[in-house]
């Protein structure tokens, strides 16, 4: 398999951006929110543990690495560090979504899947074709259809040519109506007995509850 690489010039990209324009959060990256990264020599062990789990050389059927901690414990700083570190390797994140109560567009649960889909289209021409074909016919109205058509289908296509596909979602508990929203998203992404390719990795942070 080839190493992952982000493509800058993708077919169908303009169409996808226009179709998703009213459904995405624009300030979803850690750099958009001025998130800091871990100071040198801090959080070393957890960074190593996550790095091993994300390594293409590590075989695992577990698709989600869930990091929990109380408010102010540095979860977002760790998340920003993971994205920053992976950006310097051959396994950059395919999509990131940083949720913040200070940025209203990010706490809307209706924005999370379309925003990730837009990034997947930017990351991979193969994903862009899948997403384009879906949006050409319709914008999926239900969350379940959005996850299946704009997230899982493109991810399966990306996995055909990439050693590892990483998606990071930070502060999932800060979504509006989080108890319902989080269960709704994750029960579709990774239900019991799901058949996602082993190459897909979700890194998620939230408060313990």
Automatic annotation (TrEMBL):
Domain NACHT stretches: 63-209
Repeat is among the record's keywords: yes
Pfam hit, one: NPHP3_N
PROSITE patterns listed in its UniProt record: NACHT
Keyword annotations: Repeat
Protein name (record): NACHT domain-containing protein
Species annotation: Roridomyces roridus
């Amino acid at each position: 398999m080839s190493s992952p690489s982000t493509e800058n010039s993708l077919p169908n990209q303009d169409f996808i951006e226009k179709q998703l324009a009213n459904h995405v959060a624009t300030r979803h990256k850690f750099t958009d929110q001025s998130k800091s990264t871990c100071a040198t020599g801090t959080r070393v062990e957890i960074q190593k543990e996550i790095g091993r789990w994300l390594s293409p050389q590590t075989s695992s059927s577990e698709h989600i690495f869930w990091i929990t901690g109380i408010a102010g414990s540095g979860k977002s700083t760790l998340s920003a560090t993971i994205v920053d570190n992976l950006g310097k390797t051959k396994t950059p994140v395919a999509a990131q979504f940083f949720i913040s109560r200070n940025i209203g567009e990010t706490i809307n649960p209706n924005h999370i899947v379309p925003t990730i889909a837009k990034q997947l289209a930017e990351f991979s021409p193969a994903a862009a074709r899948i997403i384009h074909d879906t949006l050409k016919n319709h914008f999926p109205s239900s969350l379940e259809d959005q996850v299946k058509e704009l997230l899982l289908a493109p991810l399966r296509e990306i996995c055909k040519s990439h050693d590892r596909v990483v998606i990071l979602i930070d502060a999932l508990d800060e979504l509006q109506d989080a108890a319902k929203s989080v269960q709704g998203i994750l029960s579709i992404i990774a239900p019991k007995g799901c058949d996602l390719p082993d190459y897909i990795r979700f890194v998620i942070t939230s408060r313990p509850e």
